[in-house]
Amino acid sequence: MIGEMPKTADELLKLLPGVGKYTAGAIASIAYGQATGIVDGNVIRVLCRMRKMGGDSTSQPVQDKLWQHANSLVDPDKAGDFNQGMMELGATVCTPKTPSCNTCPVRSLCLANKEVEFNKQEKTKELTKDKKKSTITDIECCIDSCPLCIQNSEVWDSSLGVQNYPRKGKKKAAREEQTKVCIVCKKNKSEALYCIVQRPQKGLLAGLWEFPSLKIDGNCSEEVSPQQLLLDSCGLHVDTITSTCHVGEVVHLFSHIHQTYIIDSITVEEEDRDTVVTDPPSTKPLRWVKEEELHESAVSTAMKKVFKAFTDKMNSKTPAKAKKQKVDKKQPSINSFFKSKS
């Protein structure tokens, strides 16, 4: 980046590890005025109600449509103001419960609100018309369900009104995962250096830095040695280990993963050269950093928890010096209770 901050959503998304689509759009539109939309929880609620989108709001088809709407609606001259206004509308007017539809500035454009009014009229008609049931099948029940609409199997709750939108699919239980982590410390004169590697540019925690890690599954035993873990995870070959320590376990909850990190630490000789194996060729980028550099790097919250567990363990192993207590002269000594025989 040559010391320059990316100014477009695409560049921010590509060049800054840990920056997602929403953050990239917010920075680009609010700070640099780029005409790009943003989609957060508040915007999802506003757009789903305005466009009457009843599909699972977390599904890919609905997400794609929401971003399409957000990008097409944004004001090209005041993109930042528009995006902030959309978020504020969802936070203060188009709220999850008891929305203020009567004072909503886009009420006339809201398809969910029109559906509520239509259902009220239909209910009134039902009270006066013949109660004989129609034998004609609704054409909507004869075709495949649209991924953007309320599914045929789902019921419209008239008591909820516009709160029928947005809808979320049934939440899946978070899957259990275990990952072995090895904190490698190399003493460099008076300073300690730590080995960190970069995650792939796609997937969970894309592009972030972490300690060498290896997921435990059917092909990986929990008893894998630190040397084997380093070789398998990042191609790092270590000859001499001066000390090892089992740090413990740290649990971190992602939205869909219940992750347990099993942490070990090793200390290697300063002169021990780290040899990065070239087979396989897709070796991860690797750095040796000081503790302050580690805190400044793009590291996930989970790895911060791991490092804190490590430092707490190391500090607990160092016995604290006993504080020297001052003797109160007024306090009688044990000798004063014994009198010498005359």
From TrEMBL:
Binds 1 [4Fe-4S] cluster. It catalyses: Hydrolyzes free adenine bases from 7,8-dihydro-8-oxoguanine:adenine mismatched double-stranded DNA, leaving an apurinic site. It is found in: Nucleus. Coiled coil: none annotated. It is an enzyme of class 3 (hydrolase). Residues 194-308 form the Adenine DNA glycosylase C-terminal domain. One of its GO terms (cellular component) is nucleus. Keywords: 4Fe-4S, DNA damage, DNA repair, Glycosidase, Hydrolase, Iron, Iron-sulfur, Metal-binding, Nucleus. InterPro entries: DNA_glycosylase, Endonuclease-III-like_CS2, Endonuclease3_FeS-loop_motif, HhH-GPD_domain, HhH_base_excis_C, HhH_motif, MIG/MutY, MutY_C. It holds the Pfam family HHH. Its EC number is 3.2.2.31. Involved in oxidative DNA damage repair. Initiates repair of A*oxoG to C*G by removing the inappropriately paired adenine base from the DNA backbone. Possesses both adenine and 2-OH-A DNA glycosylase activities. This is Adenine DNA glycosylase. It comes from Mytilus galloprovincialis (Mediterranean mussel). The lineage of its organism: Eukaryota, Metazoa, Spiralia, Lophotrochozoa, Mollusca.
